[in-house]
Amino acid sequence: MTELDTARREHEATPDAGAERERAITGWAPLLRLALRRDRIMLPAWIYGIVLTVVSTASSYQRLYPTEADRAKVAASASTGALRAITGPAFDLTTVGGLTAWRVAGLASVLAGLMSLLLVVRHTRAEEEAGRTELVGAAAVGRYAVPVAGFLVAVLANVSIALLTAAGLVALGLPVAGSSRSAWRSARPAWCSARSRW
């Protein structure tokens, strides 16, 4: 027997890392469908609440400050230290998109992060505390299928928030690039909070 034959037999005897990972998440799709079905009321409420907050703020600024001169007055009043501490630095307050991003980007990020955190906890820790994870684990479900399904619920919710927010801002007549960037920035921190609970 040559060294090549020995190496080949050892390689065939060791489990494939890809197959191990695949077995570890077996069954995530039915669990994802179950989680989405269980959240059919709560999830749209969170998503539409966050999206409507951003889009209604942009719509209000379009009505309240229709000209650049009106927005320049807001920009002048935004330089106070107290307002900067609450809302953060302002970048371009001469546009409706800049005003909207300045006022609600932080709020939308916090709300999306809170939603993601609560969703992942609901579909992982709460299920474990109720004993349902052990029942699911007795079936042909991989070790990481439950956390993967919970994380994917949060990811889908955040992608929905980003897409709907961008579509709403573009429908108001704001530039596509700025609307997309603002929507992505609002949903992006939520992914980190969802991932930290997994």
Task: Give a structural overview.
The protein has 198 residues and is mainly α. The protein has one domain. Helices cover 80% and strands 0% of the residues. The chain is built from 11 helices and no strands. Helix 7 packs parallel to helix 11. The protein starts with a helix and ends with a helix. The mean pLDDT is 81.
Amount of helix: over 70%
Q: Taking all residues together, what is the mean pLDDT?
A: 81
Structural class of the helix and strand makeup?
Answer: mainly alpha
Number of domains: 1
In DSSP terms, counting alpha (H) and pi (I) runs of 4 or more, how many helices? 11
What is the strand content?
A: under 5%
Q: Report how far the terminal alpha carbons are from each other.
A: 48 Å
Radius of gyration: 23 Å
| SS elements, strand count | 0
Question: What's the shape?
Answer: elongated
- The helix-strand sequence is HHHHHHHHHHH
Main beta sheet strand tally, sense and closure: none
Regions with little confidence, pLDDT below 50 for 5+ residues: none
